[in-house]
Design a protein that fits this description.
By secondary structure, this protein is of the alpha/beta class. Helices cover about 45% and strands about 15% of the residues.
């Protein structure tokens, strides 16, 4: 019988892009229940709502995925909101969890917490060797403070709090809103709209020279679930695929898969973000046997197919 077997698990953000997949992945470990509270029921920015959540759900384990997130543009427009909302939700939830004597608290963080010029591949030991990239530093630092809290609470109160650092995620169910989406869904939407409207070119942010690493959402969910079952140490753990690609190469690949043959016009007046991102994923493999398994092109094809199938409904909801 494993750690999660027969336990009550609460997944904040459990109805979201990553959360839905995490809830499904956790089911393999046979918990007694997996609960995914909604933000309209429990506003985690309000302490009384957090207390009420714990009284009602009585969790043994919490996986805290609720977050306010977005791409570079959204981060530039909402630095204060992204800092406050993400920090206050996590800080209050972890405090109430330790008072409630929750057996384990999982706090997935973000690749945005790493310093701007971290040597590639990013190793967990480099997390404190500089300031994050400026466009998403408030979000990255808010999440980084939860790592500090987790380690401090483990030291003082004995709370089994773990921290994971997922790289950029993608997959079916992603956010395709042009105002808040990340690079893959943004490029997919642009390429398909340009293809269907027979535009001679599409516009892309920055120079295309920056690199990124991407992790398919179901792979990320498997990693989070495995860590929830098997990992019990204070050190943060990277979750990634170990595959680096430039944004220019990514855009060309997405255009090919979307059957768009026009020109990609880069706008260097807009920011590239962090120059490079690629993780050392050794610790996740050694500590809880995690390795990404989804081929990148296969994952992109599935994501593109999802958008093609759902874009009418997505556009209606955004209107």
């Amino acid at each position: 019988m494993g750690f999660l077997t027969g336990r009550r698990v609460v997944v904040t953000g459990g109805s979201g892009f990553l959360g839905r997949e995490v809830c499904q992945a956790l089911g393999a470990y046979q918990p007694a229940s997996i609960l995914a509270p909604r933000s309209y029921e429990y506003d985690l920015r309000r302490r009384e709502a957090v207390r009420r959540l714990l009284r009602v759900t009585r969790p043994d384990v919490i996986v805290h995925l609720a977050a306010v997130v977005g791409g570079i543009g959204a981060n530039r427009e909402n630095p204060g909101r992204y800092f406050f909302d993400n920090a206050i939700m996590g800080i209050q939830l972890m405090e109430e969890a330790r008072l409630f004597k929750v057996a384990k608290f999982g706090a997935p963080g973000t690749i945005c917490s790493y310093p701007k010029h971290t040597p590639v591949p990013f190793r967990e030991e480099d997390l404190w060797n500089g300031y994050p990239e400026e466009t998403n530093a408030p979000y990255g630092l808010a999440k980084k403070m939860l790592l500090v809290q987790a380690q401090a609470y483990r030291q003082q109160y004995g709370l089994n709090a773990i921290t994971l650092l997922p790289v950029n995620l993608y997959g079916p169910g992603d956010n395709f809103d042009p105002q808040t989406s990340h690079v893959i869904p943004a490029l997919i939407r642009k390429a398909i709209e340009a293809r269907d409207e027979r535009r001679p070119h599409l516009d892309a942010w920055g120079t295309g020279a920056a690199s990124r690493e991407f992790l398919f959402v179901r792979d990320a969910a498997r990693g989070i679930a495995a860590a929830s079952e098997l990992y019990d140490k204070p050190a943060p753990v990277n979750l990634g695929s170990g595959r680096e690609i430039t944004v220019r190469e990514l855009a060309e690949l997405i255009c090919r898969l979307c059957r768009y043959e026009g020109e990609i016009r880069w706008d260097p007046s807009l920011p590239d973000g962090q120059p490079r991102r690629c993780l050392d994923v050794t610790r996740a493999r050694e500590e809880f046997g995690f390795a990404a398994s989804t081929n990148f092109e296969d994952g992109l094809r599935e994501t593109i197919a999802y958008y093609e199938a759902h874009r009418a409904g997505l556009a209606a909801r955004a209107a």
